Amino acid sequence: MCTSVFIGKDVSAEGTRILARSEDQVGTVHPKRFFVKEASSQPGRTVKDTGEGRDLAFPLPDVTCKYTVVPDYTVLGDGDYCSVCINEYGLMISATMSLVNLPEEYLALDPLKEEGTALREANMCEPVICQARNCREAVRVLGDLMETYGSEESNAVLFMDKEEAWIFEIYGGTSWAAMRLPDDKVAAIGTLVMLEWVNFDNPGDDWYVSPNLKGILDRLPAQVVREDGAYNITDTIVPGQRTPLYTLRIWRLLQRMAPSKVGDYDEDAHYPLLIEPDQRVSVLEVMKFFGDRLEGTGYDVDLLPWEEKKTRFPAGDTNQSASHVIQTFEDLPDRCCQLQWLAMANAEYSVYVPAFSGISDTFEKYKTDAKEDGLIDEGFYYLCKRIWALAVTDRDHLGKGVSRFQRAQEKKMFDQIMKELDPVREAYRVSDAEGDRYVTDLAARMAADQYDIQLDLYRRLFFRHMFNCDDFIEEKKNFEMEEI
Question: pTM for the full model?
Answer without folding.
Answer: 0.95
